[in-house]
Amino acid sequence: MRLTAKSEYGLLAMIYLASSLEDGPVSAREISEQQEIPAKFLEQLFVGLRQAGLVSAVRGARGGFALAHAPEDINVLAIVEALEGPLVATVCEGDRGLTCGRSGACAAAAVWNRATAALRDVFESATLAELVTAQDVIDSRPIG
Amino acid sequence: MRLTAKSEYGLLAMIYLASSLEDGPVSAREISEQQEIPAKFLEQLFVGLRQAGLVSAVRGARGGFALAHAPEDINVLAIVEALEGPLVATVCEGDRGLTCGRSGACAAAAVWNRATAALRDVFESATLAELVTAQDVIDSRPIG
DNA sequence: CCCAATCCTGACTGAAACAGTAGTGTTTGG
DNA sequence: CCAAACACTACTGTTTCAGTCAGGATTGGG
Questions:
Q1: A130 lies in which domain range?
Q2: Chain A contact set for B119 (CB, 8 A)
Q3: How much is the pLDDT for B16?
């Protein structure tokens, strides 16, 4: 339930990769410049994305990153969780288990759980394919 | 989009107040003990809740706090925003305006906005009245 | 072969936010 | 008058955030 710059940058990078499918591996530097993401920070993000199996890396000169799956098979939830860890309610259920002893026997917890479920649903139903299409529409629209 | 202990404690306190409607003002100390919330921390939360017009305070001996409106007229969104500030997407739209220059012309932003809207919807549709009812059901159910 | 481009790894850091704590003042019922 | 309660300000230790820094490993091209 905590979204940081990692998710923002990570999603931008993944959308960029998805719209560069044909171009072979894309370097982190290119993405960094085009999307205005700090280069070394972006490199760190790709560690998480690669470990999660969302991108494949090609090392060496002319190397770079590419999507490991089709854009329609990668959703935002996977990206967010790869970068931020499991998407759980930070409230009432932190890293060290339950904060309160009430477990499920707490009406407040039900609200936090509903909130988390709603977030998961939004993120899970948004695929890279959809976002690339949406971005294309935006970009092709006349300014103003 | 950032939920902290303030929201957790605050909601517990508000639920407690809602189930103590008949008892006149309830002291912060009582809530602190019953809900296991650090006393001085809880006091700070009531500052925000009072300024938001969600509770009314009675000073002096035998004083305390009470809901300023009927439980069905107070929703979780109001409580959360009273304690954490406006519920906006922390991603792509921070305190210092837009992080990127893309404004609305960004497919990624659409996802974050959808997420925020989903959260708002969950919180807005959950009232204290509902939560008290839910808590009563939980408490009256036999253990195990 | 060498070098530059590229990914990979780990440590480090300044600033901010989080989760309280401490101390003091003000009001008021008994 | 005094103890109980809210009100306000300031402080603090810890963690997270958002990067930065330094170097190592791998590879294509000249």
A1: 5-140
A2: 115, 118-119
A3: 98
